[in-house]
Design goal:
With 217 residues, the protein is an all-alpha fold. The chain has two domains: 4-60, Arc Repressor Mutant, subunit A (Orthogonal Bundle), CATH 1.10.10; 70-211, Tetracycline Repressor, domain 2. It has helices spanning 4-32, 35-42, 47-53, 56-69, 72-79, 87-103, 109-120, 124-149, 155-174, 176-182, 189-211. Helix 3 packs across helix 4, helix 6 runs antiparallel to helix 8 (124-149) and helix 6 (87-103) packs across helix 11. The longest helix is centred in the first third of the chain and has 29 residues, at 4-32. The termini are far apart.
């Protein structure tokens, strides 16, 4: 019979290493971060990294994967859409879930730091996650843009429109601290996320509708 207690302790140590590594990588970057920095913060032996992750590169990959898994529920809205949900509502639901995954105050601050870093300077970790995470988001949004327009458009145009939608969300994350200071009358986080998601939805729909008015409109 497996030792349940030892297995639970092993999983706790693994989780502590992931969380400590996320903090250290966000503070120091991959190159400057050391295994000792990470294990000291996690309260674990240096050998624990080799045991659980084989090396620092694999540990970094698992940290980046953890960061992006927090937004995978949002991605499902557009990669496996409810056929009864109108395209505009699919976009609204996606943006609400995506922004919640990015701005949730319960989410460690290093999540956003590492995610934005990988988007600016994609490394081997991002390359490994391309097919699993990045491409489904891109393809899902491009398909949704086509549904919103209601007719075929050039693939490059759909890609640019999808990037514009995502860009609004990433701006809100990257400049969150500055925006919080400029706008001191912000509502509570839950209400603000809903407000932001509705705004990005309405802005995007207006832009798409202006560029591609209905054929019979």
């Amino acid at each position: 019979m497996p030792n349940v207690k030892n297995n639970a302790a092993t999983q706790i140590t693994k989780r502590r290493l992931l969380e400590a590594a996320g903090e250290v990588f966000a503070e120091q970057g991959f190159e400057r971060a050391t295994i000792k920095d990470i294990t000291d913060r996690a309260g674990a032996a240096m050998a624990a990294v080799n045991y659980h992750f084989s090396d620092k590169q694999e540990l970094y990959y698992q940290v980046i994967k953890l960061v992006h898994q927090a937004g995978m529920e949002a991605t499902a809205v557009i990669t496996n859409p409810d056929p009864s949900m109108p395209p505009a509502e699919q976009l609204r639901q996606y943006l609400r879930k995506f922004l919640t995954s990015l701005l949730d105050p319960a989410r460690p601050s290093w999540f956003a730091t590492l995610m934005l870093h990988e988007m600016r300077q994609p490394g081997s970790a991002s390359e490994r996650l391309m097919d699993e995470i990045y491409l489904p988001v891109a393809r899902g949004l491009e398909k949704l843009v086509g549904l919103l327009i209601g007719r075929r458009i050039a693939h490059r145009k759909a890609t640019l429109l999808a990037q514009s939608i995502l860009g609004q969300c990433l701006f809100l994350v990257e400049f969150k601290m500055l925006l919080d200071r400029v706008h001191s009358d912000l509502p509570p986080t839950d209400e603000r996320i809903e407000e932001l998601a509705d705004h990005v939805t309405e802005f995007s729909l207006a832009a798409i509708g202006g560029l591609y008015p209905p054929v019979n409109g």
